[in-house]
Amino acid sequence: MRVLGVDPGLTRCGLGVVEGRRGGALRMVAVDVARTNTDALPEQRLLAVSRRIEEWIERYQPDAVAVERIFARSDVSTIMGTVQASGVALVAAARAGVEVGQHTPSEVKAAVCGNGRAGKEQVTAMVTRILALDTPPRPADAADALALGIAQVWRGGGERQLAAAAGTGRRTGARWDAAVAAQSEARARSAERWRAAEQKARTSRRTP
């Protein structure tokens, strides 16, 4: 499975493509940050972000696009550009007929780090280890985009099954139970991978 992760932003929009399968190793295909001129009109900046995302969808042919799910906060003026860029990413994916997955920051952190409250440096460190990168992806927007891609590969299937079951309006029965079990299994595998990566990191630090 190949996923394009999009960390939405009007000034900096992180783009990261990862490839792999649930329960297996992942690799980074590409990563970059789309930047816009802060002096340009908002509509022109959004157009630039949209074109860049569309270019990446066309170039890398992802099976899914993972976008950060945005929640309203008190700093509305700051988050507005992020929300707009998120909408642009969703439209670009829909126009290309590509499946979309949305994940909150805490969901991504839980999938990648095993801790929904992990800091940015911890997320970057775990992304580096999971993808076996020589150097940490910078800036944080790039690491976050890759983390979104990882979360979609590792958790996307279970989340879709759960959403499908929830859409029936029934929270009982075999279908719902199977969806919950799949989601729990995916989370358990993510936590196990995190523990293994942490153990590997500790061992390497002790080795002279």
What does this structure look like?
With about 210 residues, the chain is an alpha/beta fold. The protein has two domains: about 170 residues, Nucleotidyltransferase, domain 5 (2-Layer Sandwich), CATH 3.30.420; about 40 residues. Helix content is about 60%, strand content about 15%. It has six helices and five strands, in the order βββαβαβαααα. It has a five-stranded mixed sheet with strand order 3-2-1-4-5. The longest helix has about 35 residues. The radius of gyration is 17 Å and the shape is globular. About 0% of the residues have low confidence. Its EC number is 3.1.21.10. InterPro entries: RNaseH-like_sf, RNaseH_sf, X-over_junc_endoDNase_RuvC. It comes from Kytococcus schroeteri.
Brief sketch in words of this structure:
It is found in: Cytoplasm. The protein is α/β, with parallel strands linked by helices.
CATH topology assignment of the largest domain: Nucleotidyltransferase, domain 5
Order of helices and strands: EEEHEHEHHHH
CATH class of the largest domain: Alpha Beta
Count of distinct strands: 5
Q: Name the beta content range.
A: 15-25%
Quote the average pLDDT.
Answer: 84
Biggest sheet strand order reads 3-2-1-4-5
Largest sheet, in brief, is: 5 strands, mixed
Low-confidence stretches: 168-172
Based on CA atoms alone, the radius of gyration comes out at 17 Å
| Secondary structural class | alpha/beta
Termini distance? 38 Å
What is the count of distinct domains? 2
CATH architecture of the largest domain: 2-Layer Sandwich
The percent of residues in helical segments reads 55-70%
Annotation field: number of helices: 6
CATH superfamily of the largest domain: Ribonuclease H-like superfamily/Ribonuclease H
**Gross morphology:** globular
